[in-house]
Amino acid sequence: MKRNPITFITGGVLVIIFIMMLFTFQVRQTEMAVVTTFGKYSRSVTEPGFQWRAPWPVQKVYKFDNRIQNFERKFEQTTTRDAINVLITVYAGWRVADPQTFLESLNGDVLHAEQALEPLIRNMKNGVISQHGFADLISTNQADLKFDQIEQEMLAAVQGQAKTNYGLEVKFLGIKQLGLPESITSKVFDRMKAERQTRVKQFQTEGEKEAKIIRAQADSLANKILAEAKGNAIEVTGAAEAKASESYKVMQQNPELANFLFQRNALEQSLKDRTTLILDQQTPPFNMLNGPSVTAPANPPIK
Question: Rounded to two decimals, what is the model's pTM?
Fold first, then answer.
């Protein structure tokens, strides 16, 4: 009886697949693996691809997700260096860095990993916060805050123990929420108000100082301008008095001419705005309007 070639081919393919399943395994891009032989660690696989192995029960493969896992602590109370209680929520991101240590210490369980990280992060957080004052966390002055420094100190403190004890790499760690217990909230607000008042007084003092400097500069400039103006006025007055003195000498030599010029000037000033006046014709200086009878004296020779 002839057998169908397709049956042989199908059977051969199935045998090959079965052998491959027994003697190989695949590690994906998002995975890493640990191979054990008779229950003891054999090797770690951190690169993706196909790998050879002995069939079970000789060797067994444990696979772990190597992507970053998020972890968040609940709102907990801790104490600052100056004995003020604060409430802090901390978050972290971790991944498996050493699959052998992760398997041996935590049985390769993510839940166990978070349970191990919880007290570790809590202790490190309390230790770091206890070394910093309350003003490093809450302050009206932005320059006094040290959030970044505190987060870096907590991260550095956690990373070493997490990797050594559990084979975990903590990639980042930060403060998500910061609060105050109700019992000290009013005290903190009073302290913040006092800090604000101190800054207000500081700004007022600096403003008054600047105002005094500006006023002093303005007074100095005004005094300088007034002194220059007075000097110019004295100079102009002196020149005018010299000119007037020359004119007085001429007027003293011919009083009639002086009287005539004064009356003519008064007449011009009174009539230049089309003024209507009803006066006696003999009233000086309007008697000059009577006609040729009023004549200006001839200019005397200048001696």
Answer: 0.56
